[in-house]
Protein 1
Amino acid sequence: MDFLKNIFGSRQRGRAHQPQPEPEVEKQPEEPEPQDENQEENSYSDIIYENSWRKYGSLEGEWDKKYSDTLLDEIEKTTAKLNPGKLNIMMIGQVQSGKSSTINSFFSITEERIASRAKVGKSEASYSLDLHVIPGEGKLQHIVFHDVMGIELGEKQGVHIDDISSAVNGQLKPGYKFNPMAPANVQGTEVDESLMIHCVIYIVDAENIFSETVQSFQTKIKDLENKLKIGSNRMVIVTKIDNISNIVKDDITKIFKSENIERVVESAKNTFGVPKNYVFPVKNYTDEAEIEHFKNIPLLLALRQATYFGADYMRGKKVDNQKKS
Ligand SMILES: Nc1nc2c(ncn2[C@@H]2O[C@H](COP(=O)(O)OP(=O)(O)OP(=O)(O)O)[C@@H](O)[C@H]2O)c(=O)[nH]1
Ligand SMILES: [Mg+2]
């Protein structure tokens, strides 16, 4: 993790690494509270801006249940009017990037308790091995989440890009077991419209984003995008932001004021070639015992955007089909 040391500053307890030239006047360096020895290993100092680098007009001082419910209502409203059927969202990303955890976080929010709908676990290779199609519930009832095996950089490891492409096109059945050595032969397989993906969310681990591996990951993604011909219906979620900022770890409401988080968002923007406002930093519900409404907000802002993109894509497709007929 030396690259993080260079980018985010020293792991050593104490003052944040000061970039040259000195930070602008409006930046207010905050020093993390001294931590115990065990915490130190995985903690990074940060600088908190006075003004947010991303502005949500309605968000100032509103990190509460009411705002969380408002976002959930918007998500339900956007997806309820979709025609035909439900909104299919697929999580794609490197092994262990947090794809399944992100889906579980959405269920935790809507069920108001820690939920476990997708299999999550620590593993060298991908923990998710089959195509897991998980229908949403409650306010997410018009959404279906598609969880897949993780991408690995080596040849014949991790999910095969052709399998992702087939799954996105609705040609793989739920429960399909991914085989890194040989993708499914889908020639002649009918497309199941109800499984076609309307929005792809790339999931990337905040600690991984600057590393070399993500650069080679980028090559795999380019390959995938050429196959999928996906357009604006794709976005990025950066997970594990709690691992790159002590301050945000302690207070998630500082997420849009954190220099470290802005840097990973910028980097994800470049890696995936999407506009900055298509990149959403989140902290998943992984070690919490209960839901805390302020922690829902970044996750729901991301999901709301996915529903907007998915809805736009569905609408565009309908217009195209009408033109053809
Ligand atoms: N600290 C922290 N850990 C996270 C976060 N999201 C996921 N994790 C952890 O990262 C590990 C991998 O998470 P998964 O959700 O299984 O990742 P995945 O991308 O589905 O992994 P595969 O299915 O193996 O490809 C687990 O140990 C999670 O608890 C997060 O936001 N913060
Ligand atoms: Mg998984």
Note: The chain has one domain: 23-324.
Protein 2
Amino acid sequence: MSKLPLIATVLILAAGADVALAQDMDKTAKRGAAAYRLCAACHSLHPGVHLSGPSLADMWGRRAATLSDFGRYTDALKKSDIVWDETTLYAWIADPQVMVPGTTMTFRGIENGKTREDLVAFLRLALAPNGAAKVVKEGLIPAGMARGQIPADLSSVGSNQRITEIRHCGDGYHVTTADGAKFPFWETNVRLKVDTSPRGPRSGEPVLHRSGMVGDRVSIIFSSLAELRQSIAEKC
Ligand code: HEC
């Protein structure tokens, strides 16, 4: 009889330790979630959503550079023979350039080993099947961070951004927008871009996008490369 309270005490202590362990894991993943901010600029946790970097969904146990719908892997990563697990990810986020010289993941790395452990603890959940939904539901990161920094939707911009004419003359581009405004830009300040995603400009409606601190830097974004080639006349 006297053994019972002892067993009960041991059970309670064991349960307590379990809870403490779970709480500790929770805190670790929470800190890791904060560190994941560094990755969300270039990656989505949603399957099939590729930004500057490939989607990180369902990463565990997969060989590096094998997503068939991501066409921008470097040969360096393809030839690396890495399989993604906690050890390889821990090394990768320390310094991708050291692990795979020549990779285009231009991330300077996380020096602090504890921060890397925390991030790997978060990724353990986030890169598992349905991980994006789980980490959002558990309040670890906001939905927007799980989606990643998807560029602005250019398919429905106002008439002040929709371009109707672009000329190149001398050292400048002369741009007219759908509201009738005309702008001269120094050619050095203009970036010509293509966005072929569904969020890109509509066909035949290139978009003027202002950027930069000073406000004189602009991007002109086309729906396709063919449109870029055909849309700019050399005319003074
Ligand atoms: C500046 C953009 C950028 C940032 C920031 C970034 N990545 Fe990447 N990541 C990339 C690119 C680009 C690749 C593809 C590299 C290649 O092919 O060499 C990549 C590849 C990867 C891969 C391999 C994917 C595969 O399919 O094999 C993993 C894993 C990864 N990144 C994780 C992370 C994590 C975790 C973070 C945050 C600590 C992060 N990345 C931050 C751009 C970025």
Note: The CA atoms of residues 222 and 228 lie 6 Å apart.
